[in-house]
Write a structure and sequence with these properties.
Number of helices: 12
Structural class: mainly alpha
Number of strands: 0
Shape: elongated
Strand content: under 5%
Helix content: over 70%
Radius of gyration: 20 Å
Length: 206
Amino acid sequence: DAEERAKALRALAPHLPAGLLGEALAAARAIKDERWRAEALEALAPHLPAGLLGEALAAARAIKDEWPRAEALEALAPHLPEGLLGEALAAARAIEVERLRALALGALAPHLPEGLLGEALAAVRAIEWEDVRASALGALAPHLIELPRARLYESWAETLPILAQRRRHDLLVDLRALTPVIAALGGEKAVADVARAIADVGRWWP
């Protein structure tokens, strides 16, 4: 039974010696039900050595159902070596359901190297659903501010016009999520200036 096998692997995972983790991963990959295969991969993720994480990521990417695929990517994200993060980001960007795509992108955000943050930002700003996009922007913002100032400004200059093409409400939600970036670029004065500008526009077009 797929569910019982996944539960058994979850119970065993923290106690398995390194020499058996490859066998446990093979058992997880052999589970036919995708939901329970993802559950088993999630349980094994914190315990897998670097040499098996590529195989685990391949197993997650092979899951056709986007819900368990996103959850498996979320579980793997904190444990992936830098060399696999580009592949994981590509897998997240390929998820069609926006809420699930944002879930995977948000999980990857804290672990992405500088070279992949721009790609992640492009994926996030393409999300149409405002609350989902804002959540993903909020996950990404604390890591964007670690970019060199010139790169951060370039990312902001590319991103703001795209966000501004949507409804006013969408832009306000996005700006709230990106407040750390505004502060990093111009300090408290920039945040205050943006707030005043929003209030001014509200008076012109209530």
